[in-house]
């Protein structure tokens, strides 16, 4: 494709938004308040970075976007579910998300919990209904995304994060937490395309696996930096909330300069991993730079 990936982003965002709209129950269907809250959680101005990674990896492997819609939608639903829970008073207790009231502020805590609880199984319903895909690939997608959002993935990372408040972690401990909390779903976004490829050799699969792991950690470190340096109206949530909660973050434990340095190291490592794909990796490289450079 000759058109730069950044010029195709809007089309992909509209594509996944359309599929999300189809997957979610209409807000007019009972229970109305629950379905309205689910839609509010999903359609609240997100950039759809994870679906974009699914489509970009698909471009890298020459996969039809229609085959990628299922994992793109499912992963975004899982992401939305996780954000609703993260914002709850029992977790990070945030009032703003993407510049708007969080779901529990808008609908109440009980409805927010139920909305998130409903978004998670909906994601797996979407995966179960993927068409024109072998059963083995469909099953592998379900397992990949289930692991990415469970106790050995995102949920486990959040548990470690809560337990680490006010504590000092080593670099390895912190990056392990990031690998689970944020990296697992980023990684799954990229690997989901691999599972749909019919002729992916081991070397190229390993290259995408390594890229996904590096960029997943870099994404969270960048989030940490933005929490320190960003302004609320720019980042869409209260700045300085990590410090307020005593979160174990890269800037808090190792300083801003070390955080930037590590973020850049991970970016370069991730870009280098994509060498086997040559020019076909341009979409993933653009997204990787966007993730690390966002907010600048």
Features:
single chain, mainly alpha, Farnesyl Diphosphate Synthase, two-stranded antiparallel ribbon, 15 helices
Walk me through the structure.
- The chain is mainly alpha-helical and 296 residues long.
- The protein has one domain (5-293): Farnesyl Diphosphate Synthase, CATH 1.10.600.10.
- It is 70% helix and 1% strand.
- It is built from 15 helices and two strands.
- The protein has helices at 9-23, 32-42, 49-61, 65-87, 103-107, 109-128, 135-149, 154-163, 171-195, 202-229, 232-235, 241-244, 250-254, 256-273, 282-293; strands at residues 96-97, 100-101.
- A two-stranded antiparallel ribbon has the order 1-2.
- Strand 1 and strand 2 (100-101) form a beta hairpin.
- Helix 1 packs across helix 4, helix 3 runs antiparallel to helix 15 and helix 14 runs antiparallel to helix 15.
- The chain is globular and about 50 Å long.
- The model has no long low-confidence stretch (mean pLDDT 94).
């Amino acid at each position: 494709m000759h058109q730069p990936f950044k010029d195709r982003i809007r089309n992909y965002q509209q594509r996944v938004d359309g599929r999300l709209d189809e997957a979610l129950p209409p807000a007019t269907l009972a229970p109305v308040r629950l379905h309205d809250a689910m839609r509010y959680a999903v359609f609240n101005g997100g950039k759809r970075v994870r679906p974009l990674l699914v489509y970009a990896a698909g471009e890298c492997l020459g996969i039809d976007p229609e085959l990628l819609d299922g994992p793109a939608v499912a992963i975004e639903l899982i992401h939305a579910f996780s954000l609703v829970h993260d914002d709850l008073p029992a977790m990070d207790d945030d009032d703003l998300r993407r510049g708007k009231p969080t779901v529990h502020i808008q609908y109440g805590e009980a409805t927010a919990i139920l909305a998130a609880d409903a978004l998670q199984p909906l994601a797996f319903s979407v995966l179960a209904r993927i068409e024109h895909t072998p059963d083995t690939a469909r099953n592998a997608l379900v397992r990949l995304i289930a692991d990415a959002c469970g106790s050995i993935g995102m949920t486990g990372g959040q548990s470690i994060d809560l337990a680490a408040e006010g504590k000092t972690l080593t670099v390895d401990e912190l990056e392990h937490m990031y690998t689970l909390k944020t990296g697992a779903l980023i990684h799954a976004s990229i690997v989901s395309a691999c599972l749909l490829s019919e002729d992916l050799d081991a070397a190229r699969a390993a290259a995408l696996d390594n890229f996904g792991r590096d960029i997943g950690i870099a994404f969270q470190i960048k989030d940490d930096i933005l929490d320190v340096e960003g302004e609320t109206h720019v980042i869409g949530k209260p700045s300085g909330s990590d410090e307020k909660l005593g979160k174990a973050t890269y800037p808090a434990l190792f300083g801003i300069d070390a955080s930037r340095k590590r973020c850049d190291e991970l970016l370069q490592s991730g870009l280098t991993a994509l060498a086997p794909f040559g020019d076909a990796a341009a979409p993933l490289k653009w997204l990787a730079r966007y993730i690390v450079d966002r907010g600048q």
